Amino acid sequence: SAEDERTASPRDQEWPEAEKAEKLARGAALKWASGVFYRPENLEGLGQYRSRETQRNSSIQSRLKSTVQSYLEGVSLGLEQLRGAAREARSVCRELGAARWALLDCAEHGQHLRPLRALGAQHLQLASVVQLLPQLFSVQEVCSHTLQLLRGQQLLEAHAELMMLEHLRDDILSQLHLRGLSSAQATVLSYFSGLQELNKSLAKQLWDIVGSSLRLVREDPVLFVTAVRIIEREEKIDNALLLEASFLPPSRPKAWRQKFYHVLQETITGSLFHAPHVDAEGPGLARHLAALQKDIVSQLRVVKDLMVQCVPAHYDILNVCTATYHQTLSSHLQDILRENLDKQGLFLLLEWALHVYHSSEMMGHPDLLPEVDVSSLGPLMSPELVDQTERKYVVKVKASVLEWMQRTLEVEFKEWFREEEPETDHQGFFQSALPVIVMQMLNENIQVASLITESLQQKVYNMAMEELEAFLGRLRDALGRCGKERQKDRALPKHYTSYLLAMLNNTLALSSSVSSLHPDSAHREVPASLQAALDRTEKKACQLLLEELLLDLQPLCLQLPSRKWLSGSQLVSNMCEVIDKYTKDFSHLRKPVFTVLLMETELLVTSQYLRALMQKRLVCRSAEERGQLCQRLLQDATQLRELFCGLGLDRSQQSLEAIFALRELICLRDPALLSLEVLGFITKYPDVSDEHISTLLDLRGDVSREVRHVVLEMMLQHPQVLPQDYRPIFSTILVPAPELRFCLGKGKCA
Question: Which parts of the sequence are annotated with region: Disordered (predicted)?
Fold first, then answer.
């Protein structure tokens, strides 16, 4: 309660944990007592319980008093010991102070002993040098003898004495180093100054031997083995000194084994690849590559069969030499590629690097297998370098193909002006050597590229398609120039039509054979752009032929329509004779092109006939004249249709049906029904315009303004859309502009 807290003893306030423990104990006791004395029969033992607890408390208090007493006695003893230790520490401090003053006094006297100490060190050095003098005096004599041994190529004996001298020098220097006599080392080294010359002389002979190792292992392997033994001795000494790491003598480590590899690699590099300038032309490069192939195989045989037996196994000399040849050859090929190689040179280099190098003629030679394996060394030419070289090769081939194609086109152009007709094949079709030359040239280049890689073959194929497309463009330009010459003088070229027919056959031959150039036989489709170029070339030749035909037809077309023509004439018969004359020449065409040209001829004749009708040269003045016109149109169209059917052109492929349909417009007796007839006409021929219809109505001569207006209004209400496969007929026919009529009468000028 609050009152208990106010009356709590100072001890309880100082130790709150004790107060908490006491409360817990009282609570536990009260709980126990309430549980025990809950029943009345247990109250009889209350007095016994009180006496037992009193005795128990007395026992606990007595044990606590004895424990506290023993702790107090221990604390008292510890305090006494601490007092004694403090007295002893003060005594030690006084003695240390006295010793410090004594040492300071002695230091002043020690300054006078320094000269004596230096004199003693010098005496010790002199004594050490005096002890070594007999050995040092003999160094010059041993050096001279060692030099004589080296001049006599007694390398093992010379190296033994050299090792003895170096061991003596290193031992003396080590002793001086341990004794701290570094100042005497310079004096000692002066006696061993000849060692450096001996080392250089021995090293020079060793590296000369290693440089001639490929020859020596065949002629005198003992000398080479001696050099290797000396190198191994020095390598062991280097390793032993490096492991001690306490004192490293001068000129160590020598690392002669590493130098051995370096000299051997330089020897290989110098003997094969430090040649004069390599000829960038094909024959010179071929000789150079053949010499490399022969020398590398020969030298690797020597290494595999002889040198391997002369060196320790851990030298791995065969793999080291193989890697050296591979890496140096790779760099050498890159140097060659920096030259301006021609097409043949680039091909030789690619073939040699990608095929010959790994073949049984070189690194896969039976004499080298299975020990020599370059598969783990990577490619001789990186994929990037191969791709770059292939692109260079394609550029060179492209220039060559362009030159040959241009020359072929020039020859072809000259042949067009010959006095003789073009040659024919066994079936009588006109042809020239152009497609054979072009296809053979492209096919040879693609097949040659296939000998290298598929990627190069694909690159050359793509280039060939591009060049063929460009060639067709130049061929069309040449046809255009020939056509202009023909316009100036129709007598030249003499066999103009025949050579145009030959060119159509050539285009067909190119179109049918170009798919065989594709590297993949499963996908031999002609590229869309090239097919379009072939189609344009074919159309150009057809256009020139039709222009030639048109020049002969135009004088006849100018004569119709006319009164003479209405009354009956041989005009269309003459036209048929001209057409028949040309189609006889067309018989020298192969069938696909012949059919195309025949269809274009028929369309040209139809359009010229319709164009002549729409020139407003004739207007029917009566129903009788309209009847004559209808009869003439029927006869002409029938005659022309029979002509083309006889030439092999089916009626479904003809456009002459337009003349029959136009005749129906003319023959219609009731002008009021013209709108329905015209609607059927424009539905069948959607490219006809209102100007065409208006001209046809004028040709009838009996159409009023109201009927004309109704017909034209009907056409506006029914616009037509050209079907996708529709062959235009009327869109190429221009109608003469109508004459302007003045509404004012003519009068005198003011």
Answer: 1-22
**Residue 525, phi-psi category: left (phi > 0), alpha (psi -120 to 50), beta (remainder):** beta
The phi, psi pair for 516, rounded to 5°, reads: -70, -10
Paired residues of 430 in beta bridges: 424
**CA–CA separation, 230 and 153 (whole Å):** 13
Q: Give the domain ranges of the chain.
A: 138-253, 275-370, 387-540, 603-732
Cα–Cα distance for residue pair 92/86, rounded to 1 Å: 10
Give the CA-trace dihedral at 475, 476, 478, 483, to 10 degrees. 150
Number of helical H runs and strand E runs in the chain = 29, 0
Quick: pLDDT tens for 394-408. 999 999 999 999 999
Burial class of residue 131, CB neighbours in 10 A (0-12, 13-18, 19+)? exposed
Which of these, 664, 553, 681, lies nearest to 612 by C-alpha position?
A: 553
Mean pLDDT of the chain: 86
- 399: helix, strand or coil: helix
The fraction of the chain above a pLDDT of 90, given in percent, is 54
Q: What type of residue is 151?
A: R
Say how far apart CA 466 and CA 459 lie, in whole Å. Answer: 11
The structure tokens 């029914």 sit at 718
Say how many Å lie between the first and final Cα of the chain, rounded: 144
Q: Which of 164, 248, 157, 255 is nearest to 203 (CA)?
A: 255
Rounded to whole angstroms, the Cα distance separating 346 from 343 reads 5
Chain position carrying tokens 């029927």: 634
- Omega into 370 within 30° of 0, i.e. cis? yes
Alpha-carbon Rg for the chain, nearest whole angstrom, is 60
CATH of domain 387-540: 1.10.357.50
Tens-place pLDDT, residues 42-87 = 667 777 777 887 888 888 888 888 888 888 888 888 888 888 888 8
Burial of 708 (0-12, 13-18, 19+ CB in 10 A): middle
Judge whether residue 580 has pLDDT over 70.
yes
